[in-house]
Amino acid sequence: MNIPLFSSLSDIDQAGVNLICSLGIPPMDAFLLLKDLLNASRGRGNRIARARKCIRLGEEALVNREKSVPFSHAIAASLEAKSHRRPRTLQEIRYIATRMMKKCPELARKQVRSITPEDCEHYLLQSFSTVRQRYKGRLILSGILNFSLKRGWCRKNAASLVPPPPLKETRIRALSLYEAKQLLHTAKRMFSGECLPACALMLYAGIRPYEVRRLTWNRINLKSGLVSLAPNHTKTGGSRHVSILPVLAAILNQAGSMHNSGKLVCPPNWEKKWRDIRRQSGILRKKGWVQDVLRHTYASYHLAHFGNCSLLQKEMGHATPSLLLTRYLNMDGITPITGAMFWTHGLNPPSLLLQD
Predict the structure, then answer these.
(1) How far apart are CA 68 and CA 109, in angstroms?
(2) What is the DSSP secondary-structure string of 67-135?
(3) Which residues are CB-neighbours of 172 under 8 A, at least 6 positions away?
(4) Residue 136, SS3?
(5) What angle do CA 69, 73, 76 make, to 5 degrees?
(6) Are residue 28 and residue 76 in the same domain, yes or no?
(7) Distance between CA atoms of 41 and 253, rounded to whole angstroms?
(8) Mean pLDDT along residues 45-68
(9) Residues in domain Tyr recombinase (predicted)?
(10) Which residue from 115, 114, 131 is spatially nearest to 123, judged by alpha carbons?
């Protein structure tokens, strides 16, 4: 290559021209490019330092565009990877993500690598009107971006850098001892007692309503004293093992021949039968039935009797104790005496207990 010589240039400057030419760039094109760069990096401070920063940011933006995927693609891939999760969970993820893309149309085409915490905050505020919706939206958005991070589509989970909205959790009242036993006896009396095992698993093992609907008898091992919940049965998508304590074992033993079978614990037409049992028990008639009240009751009586928060956290399948302390535990009216009676009296008639 013929390298032009500039008689007025110093040896150092001439070496710079030679370096540019060795890269295959005509000197005039390189000078014009440098002029554009310096013009684009105008502002306070050293212009060379600002130009280097401009190059860095431009390089990152180029990588973001070339080695990332649109948000809509990330959602589809995330849902495919989570296909083993329960349908209700997948439906919730799909609904939240679709709502955000509908309210913020630019989000669908946005490269996930270029999504910033400010973007996430804007999408949540624009898409959801209540604090609880924004809280849930942030969790799902964070999950999608965390999946993208593992795939190498972004360098950070921008949603995790957005402070969660201040969500005030409503504490759910645990059933009284009398109410718990009344519910058990109603389940035993109605429908030939076929709903009793499922009721007892929710009350004495803290199994969620949607989990117990999927539970089969071969997941219950009375010899090892464990209920094993598969990843596709749990809310969080991870397996969980819950201890079968003596009061629960006594009730499950009544099912006898059902053990080790692949049949569902819940009988046919479970939803209607369970609703009838709750209605006939007469409890919580004024305020209605709260979905997870038996799980909350389990947690409160477990801590009252055993006094071991770490053990309870493990049995509940929580990663941290914060949810237990802020939402699950409601010890109002529960004493060590009623806690002991809850775990030892089993199916004793509720009439023998002190009614509230």
Answers:
(1) 11
(2) S--BHHHHHHHHHHHTTTS-HHHHHHHHHHHHHHHHHSTHHHHSBGGG--HHHHHHHHHHH-SSHHHHH
(3) 290, 292, 293, 296, 327, 328, 330
(4) helix
(5) 150
(6) no
(7) 76
(8) 72
(9) 170-341
(10) 115
Residue 4 lies inside a defined structural domain of this protein: no
Number of domains in the chain: 3
Is 226 strand, coil or helix?
strand
Could you report the per-residue pLDDT of 266-303, keeping only the tens digit for each?
999 999 999 999 999 887 665 667 788 898 899 888 88
Q: Are 148 and 69 in contact (CB under 8 A)?
A: yes
Residue 338 shares a structural domain with residue 217: yes
Distance, in Å, from the CA atom of 273 to the CA atom of 266, rounded to the nearest integer, reads 10
Beta partners for 194?
none
* Owning domain of residue 99: 71-161
Q: How far is CA 262 from CA 84, 215, 220, 259, in A?
A: 19, 9, 10, 9
Output 125-130 pairs: Cβ under 8 A, ≥24 positions apart.
Answer: 127/99, 127/100, 127/102, 127/103, 128/99
Among the candidates 47, 66, 85, a domain finishes at: 66
228 within 8 A of 241, measured Cβ to Cβ:
yes
Cα 116 to Cα 125: distance, rounded to the nearest angstrom: 14
| CA gap 314, 324 in Å, rounded | 11
The winner for highest mean pLDDT among 3-7, 83-87, 151-155 is: 151-155
Q: How many CA atoms, within 13 angstroms, populate the side-chain half-sphere of residue 321?
A: 8
For residue 243, give the H/E element and its range: strand 240-243
Model confidence, pTM? 0.60
Same domain, 310 and 227: yes
